[in-house]
């Protein structure tokens, strides 16, 4: 497992997120200007969202940015599946190729577009999160 390095802004966002939701955040990063992704402790997803989305909406309104929440898992396969949510993952296989860890993700053809995202934003998010939390060098969709 890799060590996540947070910026000062990331630490501030995590503190605010935890105070508003009661959930424990393990990571926060900004993949684009108006969006934050929080990785919450395993089991804290419901607490982070809140009843009827209360908690997450409070965070969104306070920060003024779009918020995405991903549930952490110590199992890299499960973590990759969580990062791709809401895409249905058929299989994740993590292999070593030389000195690189690569996650091969099997997805139904009809959901590949959603997994990749516009301009590759979704797959890039999954690659960055997988590298930050599980030292996975690449994520390849099959």
Structure, explained:
This protein has 142 residues and is of the alpha/beta class. It folds into two domains: 8-71, K homology (KH) domain (GMP Synthetase, Chain A, domain 3, 2-Layer Sandwich); 76-141, K homology (KH) domain (GMP Synthetase, Chain A, domain 3). Helix content is 40%, strand content 29%. The chain has six helices and six strands; from the N terminus they run αββααβαββααβ. It has helices at 8-21, 45-49, 54-63, 76-84, 112-116, 121-134; strands spanning 25-32, 35-40, 66-71, 89-97, 100-107, 138-141. The strands form two sheets. A three-stranded mixed sheet has the order 1-2-3. A three-stranded mixed sheet has the order 4-5-6. Helix 1 runs antiparallel to helix 3 (54-63) and helix 4 packs antiparallel against helix 6. It is globular.
